[in-house]
Amino acid sequence: MNQTVVQSWEKGVYEASLDRESNTVVVFVKGLNLRPHKVSDPTHFRCHFGFKNLNKDGSFLITTRAVSVAQEVVRCLLPQGVRNNTDRAKGVGVTVSHLSGNFRHPVRTILPSVARIDGKGKKKRGKYELCVCTMVWNQGSALREWVMYHAWLGVERWFIYDNNSDDDIEEVIQDLDSQGFNVTRQVWPWIKTQEAGFSHCALKARDECKWVGFFDVDEFFYFPNEFHHQLGQGGGLPGENSLRSVVANYSSSRSIAEIRTACHSFGPSGLRSHPKQGVTVGYTCRLQSPERHKSIVRPDLLHVSLLNVVHHFQLREGFRYVNMPEGSAVINHYKYQVWDTFKAKFFRRVATYVVDWQEDQNKGSKDRAPGLGTEAIEPPNWHLRFCEVWDTGLKDFLLSYFADPVTGLLPWDRSLL
Are the C-beta atoms of residues 313 and 196 closer than 8 Å to each other? Predict the structure, then answer.
C-alpha cells in the first residue's frame, strides 16, 4: 500500500488480531457510531469468517457471536474448527455485522472489510519489564530525543504506530533500532482511530511486556527527587532506570494494574524557532497547574473490551489505578511549542472522539489551545503564552550530566553526527 494515500471510511472493518489466550479475534471497525468511553451490548453483533471476497454475498463460511463491544473494537469467538489450532486462523478474512431496525423488522447489516486475521502474537519466554506505545504523524524529528531519554529511564521496547507520516520517520526508526533501542514501526493508516490503535497495541504488547506506557513523543517523565540526588557509587547517574524501577515495584501487586502520572504543560517559553538542543532543554516555562495525566498499564489485566480513552484504560474487575505523587514523578508535556511546530495540530486530530480543529465545534475543549479559532493563524504574542512558572529542572539536569564536556552536545545531538 502506498502509505501516502489516506484511507478514510465512514464504515468498514480494517484490522483483526488473534488473541490466542481467549480463543477470540479482536476486530477493528470504523463507523459503528457507538457511545464513546462506554462498553456496549455485544448481543447484536456477529463476526463472519471466510476465505473469499468478504464483500460479496454468500462468501462467508462461519459466523460467531461477539463477546464484547466498545467504541470501534469488537471481540468475537473464533470458529470452533480453529480453536485447537489457532495458526489456521492466520490470514482468514473477517467482517462484522450488527442488528438494527425494530423487534418486528430486525435488519442485520454486514460491513465492508479489508481485514484478515493477524496470526502474530506467540509468547516470548521472558517479558520486558517496561515498554512504550505511541501514535505519530510526521514526528520523526522528535523521536531520537524521546527514545534515547526514556531508554535511560529504563524503557526496553517501543511500539511506534505510524498514522500516515510522509517524513523520514521510517529511516529514523531503523537507525534507532540499529543502535540497539528495540524500536519497531507499525503502519496504521486509519484516520481518527487512536483509541483503536492503542487497543491493538495493548493486545500486541501483552505477550512481550509486563507494563506498557501510553504517552506522546512530546511528553517526558521527570523525577525531581531522584534527579537531584548526588552521583551514586560506581559512577551511576542519579535517576537512572527510575521509570522501570517504579513499575517493577508494582509488578507483584495483586490489585494495581495502572500507574497514572500528572502532566505539566509547557509553552513556547519566549522562543520563535524550534530549540536546537531539543524540547527538554529549550522549553522551560509552563502552566502552574497540571493538565490531565498519562498511564502505564499491565496489558494482561485490562478489561476484555480493551476500552480506553487515550489517557487511560478500563481495567479488569478487582483491579485499580494508583496516582504518582507529583513530588516523585511528573510528565513534562511540551504541548504548546513554537508556532511552526504547533500549527501542525490543525491538520487533523488522531483521536476518534476529538473534533478536528478546523471544524467550528467544541471550541472550549481542553484538547484545543485556549483562544484559537478554526484556522492555523498565529495569535499575537504566541511565543509568550502559557508561561506562568519557570521550570528548568529537567534542562539543568540534562546539561549537567548528559552534555558532552567539550562540545556541549546531548546524546540525541551526537547521534546525528
Answer: no
Question: From CA 200, how far away is CA 115, in angstroms rounded?
Answer: 13
The secondary structure element, H or E, covering residue 148 is helix 140-152
Instruction: Give CA separation, 24 vs 113, 243, 332, 398, in Å.
Output: 18, 33, 39, 46
Query: Each residue of 104-163: pLDDT tens digit?
Result: 788 889 999 999 999 765 566 789 999 999 999 999 999 999 999 999 999 999 999 999
**Cβ density class 79-95: b for 16+ within 10 Å, e for less:** beebeeebeebeebbbb
CA distance 339 to 371: 14
Residue-level pLDDT at 1: 41
Nearest to 272 by CA among 387, 369, 384: 384
Sign of CA dihedral 38, 39, 41, 43: positive
> 93, 10, 20: which is closest to 300 by C-alpha?
20
Place of cell 507494563: 211
DSSP count for the chain of H helices, then E strands = 9, 19
Tell me the β-bridge partners of 108: 99
Name the residue type at position 150.
H
Query: At residue 255, what are phi and psi to the nearest 5 degrees?
Result: -135, -25
pLDDT in tens, 59-96: 567 999 999 999 999 999 999 888 888 888 899 999 99
Q: What b/e sequence results for 367-378 when a residue is b if at least 16 CB atoms lie within 10 Å of its CB, and e otherwise?
A: ebbeebeeeeee
Extended strands (E) in 123-246: 128-136, 157-162, 183-187, 209-214, 219-222
In degrees and rounded to multiples of 5, residue 405 shows phi and psi of -65, -20
User: What is the amino acid identity at position 162?
Assistant: D
- CA-to-CA distance for 143 and 136, rounded, in angstroms? 10
Beta carbons of 277 and 410 less than 8 angstroms apart: yes
Question: Which of residues 359 and 211 earns the better pLDDT score?
Answer: 211
